[in-house]
Write a structure and sequence with these properties.
By secondary structure, the protein is of the alpha/beta class. It has eleven helices and 13 strands. It has helices at 11-22, 39-53, 67-76, 93-96, 98-119, 153-172, 194-204, 223-234, 266-277, 301-307, 315-330; strands at 2-6, 26-31, 57-61, 82-84, 124-129, 176-181, 184-185, 207-211, 217-218, 221-222, 253-258, 264-265, 282-286. The chain has a seven-stranded parallel beta sheet, with helices on both faces. The chain has a two-stranded parallel ribbon with strand order 7-10. The chain has a two-stranded parallel ribbon with strand order 8-13. Helix 1 (11-22) packs across helix 8 and helix 3 (67-76) runs parallel beside helix 5 (98-119). The radius of gyration is 19 Å and the shape is globular.
């Protein structure tokens, strides 16, 4: 089977492509390799996959928000299932450049829905985000909770993606699964995420900026666990049987939280990074940033029930693994 993976030069996209290739699937990967963070890291992920899997991994430099470029790709590659992980990421950057989020996350998502409809794909799995919960105060976050009050443009686009997907599932009976990711970390991670930022600061002897004075909790989820959930969902498309799905749809459209189901104190992560790096952190307490939320915590009962998802990696295991990779990548 050949699977199309968007955002295949990204953190989660490259890891998902690797898992699919390892189990024997072929992968067509697309990415626009933009400069939101260092394109050299994105290219290194692509090169790593190409070197290991040869022509079973076919990469195309394509921006999926460009409908004509996407149509050309579709005409030259045969694939059925789609894992749509590409997006303009980042909560804080959405305050600076909202147009990038409209183009990638709204126009681009619509293009991917239309591609799946035209190809009559047997399943489209797409990335949503825990940020859709916004100002929700009920912990843990449940997929049944209302998510009508996003705190950032990024969160608003991800909620809009869920609504657009619901309309396509209802109108065209297109099987789809949306995954609300919770703070993913691990080897080959993103430089704009706290784990990387803190590790870089520790090795550089620079202050760690602790927003909300470090009084925050995150459901840190290790990359291998996230990927196992993506693949399990890909293999189990929601049935078009009129039954209620996770998230409440009666169309073939399910929405799941995918996290570790442990809300970790941010300062616990700092302690683990200090231990793994052998460096003492210089702490710089800062006010809360616009668009951020204080706590995240995933109720994963729905994805456990429907797909047997069970995260296996504790934070005290995952943090040292990330630091080990970081040192190797930067040759420290």
């Amino acid at each position: 089977m050949t699977v199309l993976v968007t955002g295949s030069a990204g953190f989660i996209g490259a890891a998902t492509a690797r898992a699919l290739l390892t189990r024997g699937d072929d992968v067509v990967g697309i990415d626009n390799l933009n400069a939101y963070y260092d394109p050299a890291l994105k290219q290194a992920r692509i090169d790593n996959l190409a070197n290991q899997f040869g022509n079973r991994f076919r990469f195309e430099h394509v921006d999926f928000s460009d409908a004509e470029a996407l149509a050309r790709l579709a005409s030259s590659h045969d694939f059925d299932r789609i894992v749509h992980l590409g997006a303009q990421a980042g909560v804080r950057y959405s305050l600076e450049n909202p147009a990038a989020y409209v183009q990638a996350n709204l126009v681009g998502h619509c293009n991917m829905l239309e591609l799946a409809r035209q190809r009559r794909s047997s399943h489209l799995v797409y990335a949503s985000s825990s940020s859709v919960y916004g100002s929700n105060k009920n912990l843990p976050f449940r997929v049944e909770d209302r998510v009508d009050h996003p705190l950032s443009m990024y969160a608003a686009t991800k909620k809009a993606d869920e609504l657009l997907s619901e309309s396509y599932a209802s109108l065209f009976r297109l099987p789809m699964t949306g995954l609300r990711f919770f703070t993913v970390y691990g080897p080959w991670g993103r430089p704009d995420m706290a784990m990387w930022i803190f590790t870089k600061a520790l090795y550089a002897g620079e202050p760690l900026l602790l927003y909300n004075r470090g009084e925050m909790h995150r459901d840190f989820t290790y990359i291998d666990d996230i990927v196992s959930g993506i693949v399990a969902c890909l293999d189990g498309p929601p049935a078009d049987d009129g039954a209620s799905k996770a998230g409440g749809s009666h169309a073939p459209h399910a929405v799941y939280n995918i996290g570790n189901s442990n809300s970790e104190d941010l300062m616990r992560v700092v302690d683990l990074l200090e231990e793994a790096t052998g460096k003492k952190a210089l702490l710089s307490p800062e006010p809360m940033q616009p668009g951020d939320v204080k706590d995240t915590f995933a109720d994963i009962s729905a994805i456990e029930r429907d797909h047997g998802f069970k995260p296996l990696t504790r934070i005290d295991q995952g943090v040292p693994r990330f630091v080990e990779w970081y040192r190797e990548y930067h040759r420290l």
